[in-house]
Write a structure and sequence with these properties.
Order of helices and strands: HEEHEHEHEHEHEHEHEHEHHHHH
Radius of gyration: 21 Å
Number of helices: 14
Number of strands: 10
Helix content: 25-40%
Largest sheet: 5 strands, antiparallel
Shape: globular
Length: 319
Amino acid sequence: MTHARPAAAILSALLVATTLSVAPARSAENDDPIRLTLHDWTGQLITTRIMGEVLQKAGYNIEYVQADYIAQFAGLKTGDLHVAMEIWETTGRDALDEATATGNVENLGDSGMLAVEEWWYPDYMKELCPGLPNWEALKSDACAEAFATAETSPKGRYLGAPVTWGGYDDERVEALDLPFEVVHAGTDAALFAELESAYQRKAPVLLWVYAPHWAPQKYKGEWVEFPKYEKACYEDPAWGSNPDMAYDCGKPRGPIWKVAWSGVKDKWPGAHKAISAFSVDNDEMGGMITEVDLEGKSVEDVVAGWMERNTDRWSGWIK
């Protein structure tokens, strides 16, 4: 769930971050740096570093700026930030639509990846909560107790993503009258460390899992099947099983988008073309995330390997 912040706090969250500059290798339209945002999950760091490396090869000056996933749109609208490589249909669509409607932010098309983000449980929990993956199984006291912890009992515990990711889980629990308490993980790493620990012990766990990612490939489990998302579910309380509240459905699924400050196309037209051309698929990204998160490789090394293996491909983006 995303909380409103004062404008000054938003800009502080956007720009208080370590900024790294990368020198250009060839000439570009101008020497002004293109600022690409970095977030707090491995896949986004990889896509952004790949794009930065490609733009560097084309001669552009690059800066990486750590930024809040949703609050970054404030900087994209003003031109203080320039490119965000991963806006997920599942969680970022509302913020994306609001930003593009101003005319100051442009959607540069999908990244080639398709996003799934939803409540997920290991297979071994189905014995303790019969009826899964149907969401209505979670309404029973027995299922809630099966997923409970000492802190939440008799309510079940749902481990959500870091609060800055959005997703409306708190609203969903209330709208669907689920006997669960939402606890947000502090970081992406903490989220999956808890999954790893629970899975090894066959302990109860219900949490936010997303794809592309290594987790749904490594662990046997299922996503909860909520009522299928429709846009009206988020906008019209009369939609769905609860006539008085919105968000009584699952999360949307769909592309992961690339977005930019609308001035990019005029100031750096070659970069605009390259970013629009960027494309990787779920399997490719899942493999790279596995290399970083499970094999201990650095993001930089994984990106360097991808660049070396795909020279012909990315060279076509900057022709």
